[in-house]
User: Fold this.
Amino acid sequence: MKHTAHCVFSVLSTLAVGILAARYAVHLWILAFFESLQTHFSLVAIALALIALIFKRHWYAALILAAGIALCVHSVVMLREFAAPAIAETPSAQAKRYKLLSFNIENDNFENGARIADFILASQADVVEVFEAEPILSQMDRITQLYPYRIGCGAMTPDCDSLLLSKRPFRTQEIRSIGGLWNNRFILSNIDMDGQPVNFVTTHLSKPYFDDFHENELDLLARRVNGMSDPLILAGDFNASVIAPDMREFLAATGLRHVFPEPATWPIEAGALGIAIDHVFARAPLRLISVKQIPDAIGSNHFGLMTEFDIPR
Assistant:
């Protein structure tokens, strides 16, 4: 009985380690879901190997345990690799601070549209970026009283998917498709923030296990971002963690950075133990002061993010 249990748990831990280790040898989009969850699945592999060792001490279970620990440690290293230096949250006289609210509200979350609109209006955010925005379309009249400038939901496009709202007028504005799977999920607006032009980029990418669409979208996004010279802040639903291989390539190619640790945004049932698939990235001289999870998902399957940033003069 003990031998059988040892074999079962050894096989399960081997499968977990093998799936995670595949990324180091070959790109397989079908395994992309596991790549973003490397920390979580490596902990599962460690637990399974430990259970196998409890039933029977054997070198093979110890080897799988060591591999699981190595994968877990490397996942944490990757989570930190493209993190920006920590910035003190104490206000500074050298730079004025601003707020950005970004939130995937889920496109069938209509029963909470009014509550989401209330939250946006009370957020004190300078700029708001909403993904799958149709649930608040019926609330747009009162939202635009506080945020009179918008792209999406009837402004520059007839659909209501990606949406950018601002209290300040746009210097330039653009909405377009990125890749061939979804329409109008890239928004760029250049906004004058008290004399400093800032590029606000909004994007919503496809799921990484939909063939190679995710990788191709990141490639197109990198080319577009690298052509921008003003300070830049990019927020979006990327449907992948920063440790996914194509996300790491994107960050390396663009010089964009994120806070560490990033707040978990999905699945909401996991709370703080989930993963960050919604991100806020920035490139110097713009600095991320803090990126915090909105604790109430307001009926969405994602947590929103409130970001505080500044641009040193």
User: Anything to note?
Assistant: The helical segments are 2-21, 32-36, 38-55, 59-81, 113-122, 140-146, 213-226, 245-254. The longest strand covers residues 196-204. The chain has a mean pLDDT of 92. The first helix runs from residue 2 to 21.
